[in-house]
From TrEMBL:
One of its GO terms (cellular component) is vacuole. The keyword Membrane does not apply. InterPro entries: Peptidase_C13. Gene3D superfamilies: 3.40.50.1460. It comes from Aquarana catesbeiana. Keywords: Signal. One of its GO terms (biological process) is proteolysis involved in protein catabolic process. This is Uncharacterized protein.
Amino acid sequence: GSDTYLKMFSVMLFLGLAVLASSMPIDDPEDGGKHWVVLVAGSNGWYNYRHQFVTPANFLAVLRGDAEAVKGKGSGKVIK
């Protein structure tokens, strides 16, 4: 049914974004540390997909350095 479709869509979207993110060059931190990313989606199930959908969009905004897109969300920090 539609629940299975949404689960498959979410998995495929996540995998596609993971491949896209892994292909983007990111400079090493100046202090020699590591980059860490935490993706969090606030929902109690996959059926509420709009919460899940916003998470990868915010992640991509961080990678693009789009501070305006993540203003007021989490730390608001982006990769420059």
